[in-house]
Amino acid sequence: MRYCSACAVIVCAVVLTPAPAQNAAGDKLSKLIPDLMRQAGVPGLSIALVDGGKIAWVGSFGVKSTQTGERVDDRTVFQAASLSKVVFAYAVLQLADQGKLDLDTPLSRYLPNYVENDNRINLITARHVLTHRTGFPNWRPGGKPLTIQFTPGERFSYSGEGFVYLQKAVEKITEQPLEAFVRQTVFVPLGMTDSSYVWQEKYETAAAAGHNGGGAPSRLYKPREGGSPINGGGGPSAASSLLTTARDYARFAIAVMNGTGLKTETARLMLAPQSPVDAGCSNCIGRPVTKTSDTISWGLGLGLEETAGGRSFWHWGDNGDFKAFVAASPSAKRAVAIFTNSSNGMMIIPDIVAEAMGESQPAFAWIHYERYDSPRMKLYAAILSQGIDEALKQYRAGQPLEEGPMNDLGYQLMGAKKFPEAIRIFQLNAAAYPKSANAWDSLAEAYMTGGKELAIAYYRKSLELNPDNSNAVEMLKKLEAK
Question: Cα dist. 251→50, 254, 290, 326, 339 in Å?
Fold first, then answer.
């Protein structure tokens, strides 16, 4: 069973000629980015750099889709993923400035009975949502009702569900759907002409496709009015459905730095620490409190970090096959917005941001993404270049991978349609971790490509180790029904 979505891609036939650089930082990034993309297998990337409070450079690299080979340009639209939340938060703060929403009034005033049989729903406010202190999980389990996991306001735990709750309250207050509200409040005033929370006809030719662990493009996600906003449910979502360009998002970052459209005190509070975060987790449901981070905190709708140059704001985005990041220093009037169309885009974003901002960012240590030069990535490259036998011979002479990275490697190979190689990797993992239900579940999935009997045997083995493995139950029903 796959738990990690950050599976790597090696893409071979992608031309990575950048758009012409217009300043010194752009020159350096134009040289750095193509090399990183090649090493990590990121098909396409778009980046905008803000210097002196103005957009100084926009770079376009690679292709929108490995299937079509169409080049990325500065009008290419990417999924912003959770960078959607920051734009929505900015619009909500304008609503608060207008006196139409009190950040500290319980949202149940606008949406009663949003969670059943738990009076703690009457404690959750817009401020709790914007600072991720609602007590909601990131997303509810599939098919199950939303529940509150801890007393609202008690601690930080990142939640997309909270933003959907606030979205529905705002839609009721304004009597407008999300897209119309944010377009009127943010997109039009800031000139974000290529941005939308819903699919636009022009995106048919402008949008980048996401790419999975084997470099294959995924189908275009097209959020439509009327669809569910919950966890990729097909509708416009304040938490995750924004489609945008690097240039548009840079315009937005400049507005946040300047406090455009907000009262002076509101703009200050947005970028002031409102909530401490646990140093050991972002999604903290079911995890013990360890210690408060010394470098990371949360403002109203965005992350804050203490760098060598002072306080910056930031946010990351992860919609599986799309990864994105924004960082900005209001004091230096410098910012960068990066969008990639690959599940492993975050592997290279830290190095790009460090070059763009002139310093490393503590946020990356907190969100914990694998790097492009990790042992797993090196082993994957060796399998492709030298063959599975030689690569594993060298692998056995070194430090073994842990269960999670080895499992991810197997799915990497499956994504690249290297099924015999994937089976070899899953076999090694199951042998190394014989009591892991997930290791046997993954091996069974690999055998679904042609070994029905072994797939059944290994799903049964997984179920013996973990009787609550619903995936194994469902797969056995399908296999045994054939």
Answer: 9, 5, 37, 12, 14
Would the pLDDT of 75 be above 70?
yes
DSSP state of 399: P
- Which residues make Cβ contacts (< 8 Å) with residue 176, sequence separation at least 6? 184
Give the span between the Cα atoms of 5 and 437, in whole angstroms: 19
Q: Is the pLDDT of residue 14 over 80?
A: no
Determine phi and psi for 132, rounding to 5 degrees.
Answer: 55, 50
Q: Where are the alpha helices (DSSP H) in 41-145?
A: 83-97, 126-130
What token pair was written down for 61?
A: 């690299």
Lowest mean pLDDT among 214-223, 247-256, 383-392: 214-223
Cα 325 from Cα 303, distance rounded (Å): 11
Single-letter residue type at 270: M
Q: Which domains does the chain have, with CATH numbers?
A: 24-88+177-367 (3.40.710.10), 375-481 (1.25.40.10)
pLDDT digits (tens, 9 = 90+) for 167-193: 999 999 999 999 999 999 999 999 999
Angle, CA 133 vertex, CA 127 and CA 137 arms, to 5°:
130
Q: Beta 275-278 vs 44-51: how paired, if at all? A: unpaired
Q: Please tell me the total number of residues recorded for the chain in this structure.
A: 482
Dist CA 264 CA 242 (whole Å): 27
Once rounded to an integer, what is the mean pLDDT over residues 409-418?
Answer: 90
Q: Is 165 left (phi over 0), alpha (psi -120 to 50) or beta?
A: alpha
In 368-402, where does DSSP find H-type helix? 375-386, 388-396
